[in-house]
Specification:
- The complex is a heterodimer.
- By secondary structure, chain A is α+β, with helices and mostly antiparallel strands.
- In chain A, strand 16 and strand 17 form a beta hairpin.
- Chain A is built from 8 helices and 20 strands.
- In chain B, helix 2 crosses helix 11, helix 3 crosses helix 10 and helix 6 packs across helix 8.
- Helix content of chain B is about 75%, strand content about 0%.
- The longest helix of chain B has about 35 residues.
- The two termini of chain B are about 30 Å apart.
- Chain B has 2 domains: about 40 residues, no CATH class; about 200 residues, MetI-like fold, CATH 1.10.3720.
- By secondary structure, chain B is mainly α.
- The chains are: A alpha+beta, B mainly alpha.
- The interface between A and B is medium-sized, with 27 and 20 residues.
- Chain A: The complex is composed of two ATP-binding proteins (PotA), two transmembrane proteins (PotB and PotC) and a solute-binding protein (PotD).
- Chain A: It is an enzyme of class 7 (translocase).
C-alpha cells in the first residue's frame, strides 16, 4: 500500500453503546492525511465519544478504526501514535512547563536530555520558551492552551486530536488561536482532528467538516459545501443562520422547482434532487443572500414590512414580516451600505434575491 | 452572611458556652502540663519550677520500663502506619478510580466501619479472633491489630485528596505513551502525596496513642507507652507520669499540625 492513498484515520461502521443507550450509530468516515478535519455538532451528538474512541479512552462496541492502515481499536492509549489536547488541558500541575512538554517524548523511549531538547524546541514554536521553568498554574488560560498543544505535538504523533480546546478562552484569544492552530497544522503537516460545537470555528479552520447529531453523521464536506449546500434541515439550521420556510412544490420544469409559501408568495429553486410535485418540504435561504428595495427585483421578490433592525457591529439584521406569510431575516453587511438600503421599521418594501438563492431540503 | 442580626456571636450565652467548653476540654491538659514542671513530689502542691520529673523519666527507677515501652510504641506505630497507609492508598485508588463497581458503597462502609464501632468491641473481637486462630499474644498481635484499625484513619485524607484530582491527568499521561503503572507512579502518586503523608501521620499518632485494643491483645509483660503509663498510674500517680504525658501530648500536637499543613499544601503551585 502506498502512503499517499492511505487515510490517516479510517472509522468503519463504528458503534458505541453504553448499556441501552447508543451514543454512536454506525459511523463510517475517512480522514485524509495532512487534513484539518472537524467533528461538529451540538453537545451530546457523539463527537467527543468518537474522538475518545480514536484516542483509546473509550472502547468500540462494534466496528473498526484504522490509523494509516493499522487497526488500532483494541490497542491501549499508550500504544496509539496519536496525542490529545484536552478540553481542560490536563497539564500535570506538579511539573514545570518544560517537564510537561518533555513527558510524552521521554515516555516514548527517548533519553531525558533528548526529551528536554525536543520540549525546548516545541516551546519555542508556541513562543513560550521564557516560561519553561514555571508551573502550569502560573500561566494564563491562553498560555496553558499553547503548552497543551506543544505537549501533544512534541512526541510527533501521526494524528493530533483536539477536544474543544478553545472553548475556555475569551472571544479575542479564541480567534487568534484559531489562526495559530491552522498555521501550526500546515507547518507540522500533522493530521488534526478537531472537535467543536462552534460552527463558526469549524468553518474558519477546517479543510473538511463532519456534522453530527444524535450519534449520526449528518453531512461530510468542505466548509463551503456544508454552508451552501446543506443536505438536510439539521445541517441548514445548525450551520449559520438561515430562513427555514415551509413550502409546497407546485411545478418542476428544466431543473427548477417553483414552490409556494403561505400568503400566496412564490419562490423558485435551482435544485430539485428527488423531490416531486406536490411535496411539502422546507426551503433554506441564507439571510445574507437577501436584499431590500422599494422596487421588486426581476428574479425573485417578496413584499413585506420591516419589523425591526438589529445592529450588530459588522452587519445589520432586519426582521421582515411578509404580508400573510412567515417572518424573514435579512442581513446587510455594513460594508454594503452604499448599494443596499436599510428601511425604517414599519416601511413597506420588497425582499429581493437572485434566482436560486433558496435550497430545498428533504427533512 | 454575618449580619448583626443573625451573627452567631449575638446569641445569648454563646460566649459563656464557648468558654466553658474550652475550659472543660483543655484545663486538665494545661494542669498536667504545668505540674509536670513541678519540683514537688506531690501532684497537687506547687513548689517551684523544675525539670526534675523529665530527668526522672529518662534516668529514674522506672526509666528502663518506660524506654522499652516507648521503643515498642514507636516501632509498632511506624510499621503499622506504613503498612496501613500502603493499603489505604490502594483502597482509595480502587474506590475513587474504579468507577461504579458493584458493592462500592458496601466497600466504603467496610473501610470506615472501625471508626463507628466502639473500640472496646473491636478490642474484644480482635482478642477472640487471635485466640481462635491460636495466634500467641505479643508484639506481633499488637502490630496486626494496629495495622487493621489504622486503615480508615489513613484512608480518609488519601481518598479526600484523590477525589480532588481529575482523572484526565492519568488519561493525558496514557495518551502521552505512559503505561497504566507509569501513569500511576509518575502522575497520580505525586499528586496524592500530601494526602498520603497526612494519612501516614494520622495513622502513626492513632497507633502511638492507642490503649484499649493494645491492652487487650498485648501479651503478658509486653508494654507500649500507653499501657505502661496505665500500669504505673494504678500504683499511684507520680509526677513523672505527667512529664511523659506532656511529651506525648507535645508529639501528638506536632504530628497533627504537620498532618494538617501537609494536607493543605498544594504541590501544584
Amino acid at each position: 500500500m502506498n502512503d499517499e492513498t492511505l487515510s490517516a484515520v479510517d472509522v468503519r461502521d463504528a458503534v458505541k453503546r453504553y448499556g441501552d443507550f447508543t451514543a454512536l450509530k454506525t459511523i463510517s468516515l475517512s480522514i485524509k492525511d495532512n487534513e484539518f478535519f472537524t467533528l461538529l455538532g451540538p453537545s451530546g451528538c457523539g463527537k467527543t465519544t468518537l474522538l475518545r474512541m480514536i484516542a483509546g479512552f473509550e472502547d468500540v462496541t462494534e466496528g473498526a478504526i484504522f490509523l494509516y492502515g493499522d487497526e488500532i481499536e483494541n490497542l491501549p492509549p499508550h500504544q496509539r501514535p496519536v496525542n490529545t489536547v484536552f478540553q481542560n488541558y490536563a497539564l500535570f500541575p506538579q511539573m514545570t512547563i518544560l517537564d510537561n512538554v518533555a513527558f510524552g517524548v521521554e515516555m516514548r523511549g527517548n533519553s531525558k536530555a533528548e526529551a528536554r531538547r525536543r520540549a525546548g524546541e516545541m516551546l519555542e514554536l508556541v513562543q513560550l520558551s521564557q516560561f519553561s521553568s514555571r508551573k502550569p498554574s502560573q500561566l494564563s488560560g491562553g498560555q496553558q492552551q499553547r503548552v497543551a498543544l506543544a505537549r501533544a505535538l512534541a512526541p510527533e504523533p501521526k494524528v493530533l486530536l483536539l477536544d474543544e480546546p478553545l472553548s475556555a478562552l475569551d472571544l479575542k484569544l479564541r480567534k487568534a488561536m484559531q489562526l495559530e492552530l491552522k498555521h501550526l497544522q500546515r507547518e507540522t503537516g500533522i493530521t488534526f482532528i478537531f472537535v467543536t460545537h462552534d460552527q463558526e470555528e469549524a468553518l474558519t479552520m477546517s479543510d473538511r467538516i463532519a456534522v453530527m447529531s444524535a450519534g449520526e453523521l449528518q453531512q461530510l464536506g468542505a466548509p463551503t459545501d456544508i454552508y451552501e449546500r446543506p443536505h438536510n434541515m439539521f445541517v441548514a439550521d445548525f450551520i449559520g443562520e438561515t430562513n427555514l420556510l415551509e413550502v409546497s412544490v407546485d411545478k418542476i420544469a428544466q431543473g427548477r422547482a417553483t414552490c409556494h409559501l403561505g400568503g400566496g408568495h412564490e419562490l423558485t429553486c435551482n435544485q430539485v434532487d428527488d423531490i416531486g410535485v406536490g411535496a411539502k418540504v422546507h426551503m433554506s435561504i441564507r439571510p445574507e443572500r437577501l436584499f431590500m428595495s422599494d422596487i421588486p427585483a426581476e428574479a425573485e421578490s417578496l413584499k413585506g414590512t420591516v419589523k425591526e433592525n438589529i445592529f450588530a457591529g459588522t452587519d445589520i439584521t432586519t426582521i421582515v414580516a411578509l404580508a400573510e406569510g412567515p417572518d424573514f431575516i435579512v442581513r446587510t453587511s455594513n460594508s454594503d451600505r452604499g448599494n443596499k438600503r436599510i428601511f425604517e421599521p414599519g416601511t413597506e418594501m420588497y425582499v429581493n434575491m437572485e434566482m436560486g438563492a433558496g435550497r430545498l431540503l428533504v427533512d | 452572611m454575618a449580619t448583626p442580626g443573625n451573627d452567631i456571636k449575638s446569641y445569648p450565652g454563646f460566649r459563656f458556652i464557648t468558654i466553658a467548653c474550652l475550659i472543660i476540654l483543655y484545663a486538665p491538659l494545661v494542669v498536667v502540663t504545668i505540674y509536670s514542671f513541678n519540683a514537688s513530689k506531690s501532684i497537687t502542691v506547687w513548689e517551684g519550677l523544675s525539670l526534675h520529673w523529665y530527668a526522672d523519666v529518662f534516668t529514674g527507677p522506672d526509666s528502663g520500663k518506660f524506654k522499652l515501652a516507648a521503643r515498642n510504641s514507636f516501632v509498632i506505630a511506624i510499621i503499622a502506619a506504613s503498612v496501613s497507609t500502603a493499603i489505604a492508598t490502594l483502597a482509595a485508588t480502587a474506590m475513587v478510580r474504579g468507577g461504579q463497581f458493584k458493592l462500592r458503597t458496601v466497600s466504603f462502609g467496610l473501610i470506615s466501619l472501625p471508626l463507628m464501632v466502639p473500640e472496646i468491641v473491636t478490642a474484644v473481637a480482635t482478642l477472640i479472633f487471635f485466640n481462635a486462630i491460636g495466634f500467641d499474644r505479643g508484639l506481633m498481635t499488637i502490630l496486626v491489630a494496629h495495622i487493621a484499625f489504622c486503615i480508615p484513619f489513613a484512608y480518609l485524607p488519601i481518598s479526600a485528596r484523590m477525589q480532588g484530582i481529575e482523572d484526565t491527568y492519568e488519561q493525558a499521561a496514557m495518551d502521552l505513551y505512559a503505561t497504566k503503572r507509569q501513569a500511576f507512579t509518575k502522575i497520580l502518586m505525586p499528586l496524592m502525596m500530601p494526602g498520603i503523608i497526612s494519612g501516614f501521620l494520622l495513622a502513626f499518632i492513632v497507633s502511638l496513642d492507642d490503649f484499649i485494643i493494645t491492652n487487650f491483645v498485648k501479651g503478658a509483660g509486653v508494654e507500649t507507652l500507653p499501657t505502661a503509663i496505665f500500669g504505673s498510674v494504678k500504683q499511684g500517680i507520680k509526677p513523672n507520669i505527667m512529664a511523659i504525658s506532656t511529651m506525648l501530648l507535645g508529639l501528638s500536637i506536632v504530628m497533627v499540625t504537620i498532618s494538617y499543613f501537609v494536607s493543605k499544601t498544594d504541590n501544584t503551585k
